[in-house]
Amino acid sequence: MANFSFDIVSEYDKAEMNNVFMQASRELGNRYDLKGTPANLEWLGDKDGFVVTAGNDMHLEAIIDIVRRNLINRNQSTRVLDLSHTPVTANLKVTQEIPFVAGLDSDRAKSVSKTVRDAFPKVKPQIQGDAVRVSSSSKDELQKVMQLLREQDFDFPLSFTNYR
Question: pTM, whole model, 2 decimals?
Answer without folding.
Answer: 0.82
